[in-house]
Specification:
homodimer; about 270 residues; alpha+beta; CofE-like fold; 3-stranded antiparallel β-sheet; 6 helices; about 25% helix; globular
Chain lengths: ~270, ~270
């Protein structure tokens, strides 16, 4: 089994018949400046969980953001006029809106209790992924808060660093998916969604393959990385974030340097909106 | 391990640390009138795959639709004026548009190559899920075609029938999720999505639970059934539909009679649009 397959149309890639997901049971609370790869590595070894070729590690964005120190003390922000205006329409704290706008490239929708924006990384979600859950200010911080946690600075780059370090430590070829829980249009509930990846093609393009009866498939592109994030979220233990790292074994995937932003549709190409 | 848990806030429900997915490797081509539960049962036994308490079977909607004979010969349809008008705007076959409208409760978006509608079952997708891939007219049919396949008539009812039959055959408590591959706004690629379910609460509501630091979670509702569908799709073999049944083992979930339409947001409550 090898991640790199040259035939872009090889249907075997999605046709493994078994998949096993295993969450790391224990990981210390991540602190700013921590070497996250080293923490994950130690956690794996402590649980006698090895890594093998073609394993995918799905890592919650929050622990990456914590290691990167992406904390923000809202009391230090001075909201702009635009932030005040959007805060009035959405009912949100103007300082939170200021933080959201600073991380966003576009506001998609504003309504009561909703501020849906496109993060600078390309992904559309509520509040640019800025979160107040499971956030404790770093110990060295003196501000009064409230504290929030931003998304990782560059989730693809974070994924690539984890991939390089963990691949080297285990002498294997890995892929990394950085996940976040996103709401979505049309449907209730959040689903794990890929906001960063490394070593795996986030989209599996089967266009040109043929169906059971020889008819060429026209529209079959699967969001593999998103599906990995959703699968991992089933055992990630969202409320208490007890399981922020999940090893997925058994998937046949294409190695790639494509960023997770390849999953994002440009607004003018969005047939659903 | 038991599916029925009374404490609605029990975080253990999402915190199993291991999950295994196993696709049925072989299943005969499903024909109209087939007893799908019996076919799946025979397939499981042929592969020595047993069912146990709390297993979830994720079943592709297409084989259910085929068993239910949801084929339609487009040449038999006479498009309405509305269908002609939408066909002009979308570039689609007016007969296909007629079929889509007949199965829809609302048109969400019309653009070139896109007809996004709300199916009568509540789920929003392209073309009401009507599909031309992997569709072969039933042998007894005489029409000239082209043939398409509609979604199952009532995917929750189909799921419940499968649940009752297979639970009885194995003497265990199962859950069933009926999946379809949906495109979505904001993001490229399709993801497995739940359009029917039985025996499992499709949404896992953790509101009221507390986070790591005792802060009450406000917005944490997870779309468990959708995540199961997405996970199964990773090994379902979309192009040739070689693996339309996936057994998921290890999830702790809440037994429920809630239909999958509970996952659908009403348009006036959709904060993302």
């Amino acid at each position: 089994m090898h991640a790199e397959v040259t035939d872009a149309r090889d249907p075997v890639l999605s046709c493994a018949a078994e998949l096993s997901l295993r969450a790391l049971r224990r990981l210390p609370h991540v602190q700013p400046g921590d070497d996250l790869a080293a923490l994950i590595d130690a956690g794996l070894r402590a649980e006698s969980l090895e890594l093998a070729d073609c394993d995918v590690l799905v890592v919650c964005s929050k622990i990456i953001a914590k290691a990167e120190g992406q904390y923000l003390d809202l009391s230090t922000l001075t909201p702009s006029a635009a932030a005040h205006e959007l805060a009035g329409r959405s009912g949100k704290d103007p300082r939170l809106v200021e933080a959201v706008l600073a991380d966003s490239s576009r506001v998609s929708r504003v309504a009561r209790e909703a501020l849906i924006v496109q993060h600078q990384g390309g992904h559309v979600s509520a509040n640019a992924g800025i979160d107040q859950s499971n956030v404790r200010p770093p110990s060295a911080a003196a501000g009064s808060g409230p504290w929030v946690l931003r998304l990782p600075r560059d989730a693809d780059a974070s994924a690539e660093r984890l991939r390089l370090q963990l691949s080297a430590a285990w002498g294997v070829r890995l892929a990394i998916v950085v996940s976040d829980s996103f709401g979505r249009p049309f449907r209730k509930g959040t689903v794990g969604t890929a906001i960063g990846c490394a070593g795996i093609e986030p989209l599996f393009d089967q266009r040109g393959a043929t169906d059971l009866f020889g008819r060429t498939l026209e529209h079959t592109i699967t969001a593999t990385a998103d599906q990995l994030a959703a699968a991992a979220d089933l055992i990630a233990g969202q409320a208490d974030e007890s399981r922020p790292v999940v090893r997925v074994r058994g998937l046949l995937f294409r190695a790639s340097a494509t960023p997770a932003s390849a999953l994002c549709r440009a607004p003018n190409e969005d047939l659903y909106l």
